[in-house]
Amino acid sequence: MAPTDSTVLVLGETGTGKELIARAIHNLSTRCGRPFVKLNCSAIPLDLLESELFGHEKGAFTGAIAQKIGRFEMADSGTLFLDEIGDMPLMLQPKLLRVLQEQEFERLGSGRTHHINVRLVAATHRNLEEMVARNEFRSDLYYRLNVFPVVLPPLRERRPDIPQLVEHFVEVFARKMDKRIDHVPQATVDAFVSHSWPGNVRELQNLIERAVIRSTDGVLPNPLPISDQGARTATRASAPNTFRDSNRTVILQALRAAGWVIGGSGGAAVRLGLKRTTLIAKMKKLGITRPMHQNNLDPFTETVESDQFLRPSTE
């Protein structure tokens, strides 16, 4: 539908990338290269929203000291993206409906009709059908907006996309901060994939930015700390030993996968997104030690490095 001029309604939870989809629709349309204008309906106070949309003449109201061009005029021949359309006040909805149907409007304080050629892409995280049923949104405007709905799934329903998104955001922020990120540990990727992502892609983006800021050795640290995940698990299970046991299990898995090597590019520390010294400290606290004989491994006493002999904690 991108090459058409049809109105598009983008639906999805906060942080799923509704504006990104709107820009993609514009860039793939015949209006590409012409204005792409956006307005968040929930971010503008009620008494200013009408002026932001349609503009006003000098003296139209108190404080209108000069003529103002509205977003519809700015977007003429291009695309107007109205984000959070579900937050538009009922009193303004008839005026929006008229613009969509007639492609004309008047500025506040003016009787002159302006004709425009604008494609509208609207977005919301709200359920507009339920709002219509509660008389909180006009049904005629809803049907006019809902010509071609695009539903964006939450990130928790598209987990196979997460590794590619991680790779993309790491590249973006590493370039922006002039940092070199050579490796993203598999354990870190696994933590991202298993996270619930209530903030969707925006939350993922912010966490990757945080991790790139923290990186000092070319390895992306895990911004979802093992200790935090373990603590949440312990709280849910109401079991005092869950935190310690889960840490021990995760560390032992990483050590086995790394061939019992702590440091280096393929070591357990890198796989866990931890510094070598931090991992050694955790192993000491959990009582994970190198066995005396390689052929008789105790499940909680594993080889870690040939130059490291870690004694069990006396705590």
Key terms:
single chain, 315 residues, alpha/beta, Rossmann fold, Helicase, Ruva Protein, domain 3, 3 domains, five-stranded parallel sheet, two-stranded antiparallel ribbon, 13 helices, 7 strands, 41% helix, elongated
Report on the structure:
- The strands form two sheets. This protein has a five-stranded parallel beta sheet.
- The chain has 13 helices and seven strands.
- The protein folds into three domains: 8-152, Rossmann fold, CATH 3.40.50; 156-214, Helicase, Ruva Protein, domain 3 (Orthogonal Bundle); 225-315, no CATH class.
- It has helices at 18-27, 46-54, 71-74, 93-102, 128-133, 139-145, 162-176, 186-194, 200-214, 226-237, 242-257, 268-272, 276-286; strands at residues 8-11, 36-40, 79-83, 104-106, 113-115, 119-124, 148-151.
- Helix 7 (162-176) crosses helix 9 (200-214) and helix 10 crosses helix 11 (242-257).
- It is of the alpha/beta class and 315 residues long.
Poorly predicted residue ranges: 227-243, 293-315
**CATH-scheme architecture of the largest domain:** 3-Layer(aba) Sandwich
State mean pLDDT (0 to 100 scale): 84
Radius of gyration: 28 Å
What distance separates the N and C termini? 65 Å
The domain count comes to 3
The CATH homology group name of the largest domain: P-loop containing nucleotide triphosphate hydrolases
